[in-house]
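Weekly puzzle thread! Below is a chain. First person to post its structure in token form gets bragging rights.
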Amino acid sequence: MKLQEIRQIAKGVGVKAGVGRSKADIIRDIQAAEGNSPCYRNITDCRVLNCLWRGDCQTEKK
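Winning reply:
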């Protein structure tokens, strides 16, 4: 997912996503704001199939 799209989601849940914040940090803050575990790129074998971030999370280098 592109950073522009992530920033839109962040804005919708009240997360600051300004310049200088990493994609991973923004996504973790979104996860926490939604009441989920802020696990983006911290789990190598994720079994949560319905996670919005799973595709990016499990394919990017750790």
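Puzzle host: Confirmed. Bonus trivia for everyone else. Helices lie at 3-13, 23-33, 54-59.
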